[in-house]
Amino acid sequence: MKTLKILVGVAFIIAISAFAIDKVSSPKIDDGYKIGDVATDFKLKNIDDAMISLADYKEAKGFIVIFTCNHCPYSVAYEDRIIGLDKKFKSQGYPVIAINPNNPKAYPDDSFDNMKVRAKEKGFTFPYLFDDGQMIYPQYGATKTPHVYVLEKTAQGNLVRYIGAIDNNYKDASSANEKYVEDAVNALLKGEKVPVEVTKAIGCSIKA
């Protein structure tokens, strides 16, 4: 009986410890945006030290907002595809706006200075913003890097039209046969309904 009590006590301690670890590694996220919600604007520092907001893009028809970072292997695997999305759609009114949501104290590789280095190395063609204080990603409900939100600019505001992954194969761009973001933006440009509105974002958890 004494042994059983000890085992139960140990199991309880392990359960509490696991919960505590999860609380530390997974910051609390509100529900975030749903399809059709109006995304509020933000003003965040770009790698050129300028403060950037969506309102700065007067001619834009919408935005491809991507929460990403330096260190995550999923984000690294998608960098060329993110550059490709910006090159394809920026001239059509849907620029990429990349945001690093991670706490650099948790991952120094994701510091603002290292963001500048990475952007230069890869030749980023889009703003790469720092979510200082981690105020923006919880509003969106982002949980992964990368995590994408396609917004359509309307008279009501920037409406959320797609949430999720970039495509269905992070390992190999040539093997991806479901290009969710590309299909979403193409549909919006044609005035059509987005074919797939929500997918599961695959990537690293955002670090608080």
Describe the structure.
This protein is α+β, with helices and mostly antiparallel strands. It has one domain: Glutaredoxin, CATH 3.40.30. Helix content is 32%, strand content 20%. The protein contains 5 helices and 10 strands; from the N terminus they run αββββαβαβαβββαβ. It is globular. The termini are far apart. 33% of the residues are buried.
Which SSEs are present, and which pair or pack?
Layout: H1 2-25, E1 38-39, E2 44-46, E3 51-52, E4 62-67, H2 73-89, E5 96-100, H3 112-122, E6 128-130, H4 137-140, E7 144-145, E8 147-154, E9 157-164, H5 180-189, E10 204-205
Parallel strand pairs: 4-5, 5-6
Antiparallel strand pairs: 1-9, 2-3, 2-6, 4-8, 7-10, 8-9
Would you list the SSEs in sequence order as H and E?
HEEEEHEHEHEEEHE
CATH names the topology as Glutaredoxin
Strand order of the largest sheet: 1-9-8-4-5-6-2-3
> What percent of residues are in strands?
15-25%
Whole-number average pLDDT?
88
